[in-house]
Design brief:
about 425 residues; alpha+beta; PmbA/TldD fold; 2 domains; 5-stranded mixed barrel; 9 helices; 17 strands
């Protein structure tokens, strides 16, 4: 297809092909609700005529369909305005080492075994506590994906990965006092997942813990985010230092390279070559070779997250982050890294532990932050009662700089490796 693009007059071209297959099952109250086999492939290409760009895609891989897709992409490019920043990443930056990061672990599981495992998970959850009154659903999924990327520099790269997950959502209580929660496990290799019974029991434990919530007075309180919520705060930082937000001038961290964005004891390191990492890759979405590098070192922003296009718009060089950030580690000394969740609670002392965030009240330009929240009230390092229908508010600049601790209770289900995060005081709007 790259050669076909050249024959139509394109001076540059890039093509991506994705093929996947998978199995997913869903059960509820001992019955099978869904059973799906998936299999598909698709192709997308982009051509460049000078600074003019055209893209097209299709899911039909017959030669005549591919030829038609090439013609459509070229026709689109001929009718677009030139953009001096458009084009492939520099040829000298292409990856030369394909790498093998242990991301391919197909799970030889058939539908009957998958259903049995999902049912065992649900049963373990229902039997864990008499207060579990209903089930919202339990699902198991497995998938295999192969991606191939080629461009007119002569680069050809292949990536492949497997993903497996099991989740369970339960309901506790009755009437207006019902509460819902869930748990899930996710890994590249099935043997790295939690057992079905452990997932069900954890879902039950989290659900019943939310029963009988009580109000919290409105005011400034110390706040801690569990790992799943803590990575959303890091996600806001990543969005703010991404090229698209920067060249559009829609980031609260404009022109901040070389200045503190986190406390001086905290660093963020991108490690794209980690064995069995959820986002390990030898190259980014443009074929640029990835490498381990600091994003934040000792609290100071070391660089942005740039593709070749956003880098050109900003007069900089790509950071091999076309398609997003790869495995990101939060590094902190022991003095600011509680050993586990209980140690993090002790470090919090008295305040709010947030286990759920709701709404989209985040302004990416100013950093103003206001979101609905639920979780637990803690006194003297011990959980006292559940809380819900709260709002926590602040500004992301202050929240990031004010981080007091990041726990060692890292959630392995994400490429952003963070534990529980103590943010210090925030405004909490509760009852009264």
């Amino acid at each position: 297809m790259v050669e076909q693009c050249r024959s139509h007059g394109a001076d540059q071209a890039e093509v991506g092909v994705d093929a996947s297959r998978g199995l997913s099952v869903g059960v509820r109250l001992g019955e099978v609700e869904t059973l799906e086999y998936t299999r598909g492939a698709g192709i997308g290409l982009t051509v460049y005529f000078g600074g003019r760009k055209g893209s097209a895609s299709c899911g039909d891989l017959r030669p005549e369909s591919l030829a038609d897709t090439v013609e459509k992409a070229c026709a689109i490019a001929r009718h677009t305005e030139p953009d001096p920043a458009a084009g492939l990443a520099d040829a000298a930056l292409m990856a030369t080492d394909p790498g093998d990061f242990d991301t391919w672990h197909p799970w030889d599981i058939d539908a009957e075994v998958a259903i049995a495992r999902a049912l065992a998970c649900e049963q373990a959850g229902r039997e864990a506590d008499a207060r579990i009154s209903n089930v919202d659903g339990t699902s198991l999924a497995t998938s295999e994906t192969v991606s191939v990327y080629a461009n007119s520099h002569g680069f050809l790269g292949t990536e492949r990965a497997t993903h497996h997950s099991l989740s369970c959502a339960l309901i506790a209580g009755a009437g207006s006092g019902m509460q819902r929660s869930y748990w899930y496990t996710h890994a590249l290799a099935a043997q790295d997942m939690e057992s079905a019974e452990a997932v069900g029991r954890r879902a039950a434990e989290r659900t019943v813990a939310r029963l009988d919530p009580r109000p919290v007075p409105t005011g400034r309180h110390r706040v801690m985010l569990v790992p799943e919520m803590a990575r959303s705060v890091i996600g806001h930082l990543l969005g703010a230092v991404s090229g698209g937000a920067l060249y559009r001038r829609s980031s609260f961290l404009l022109d901040r390279v070389g200045t503190p964005v986190l406390p001086g004891w905290l660093s963020l390191v991108e490690r794209p070559h980690r064995p069995r990492g959820l986002r390990s890759a030898a190259f980014d979405a443009e074929g640029v070779a990835t490498r381990e590098s600091d994003l934040v070192r000792d609290g100071v922003l070391a660089r942005y997250l740039l593709s070749s296009y956003s880098a050109r718009r900003l007069g900089l060089e790509t950071t091999a982050n076309a398609g997003g950030v790869h495995n990101l580690d939060l590094e902190a000394p022991r003095s600011h890294r509680p050993a586990d969740f209980q140690a993090a609670l002790a470090a919090l002392g008295t305040g709010l532990v947030v286990t759920e965030l709701m709404g989209q009240g985040v302004n990416p330009v100013t950093g103003d932050y206001s979101r609905g929240a639920a979780g637990f009230w803690v006194e003297d390092g011990h959980v006292v009662h559940a809380v819900d229908e709260l709002t926590i508010a602040g500004n992301l600049k202050d929240m990031l700089l004010g981080i007091e601790a990041v726990g060692a209770d890292v959630d392995p289900r994400s490429h952003v490796a963070t534990g529980s995060m103590i943010l210090g005081e925030m405004m909490v709007a509760g009852a009264g």
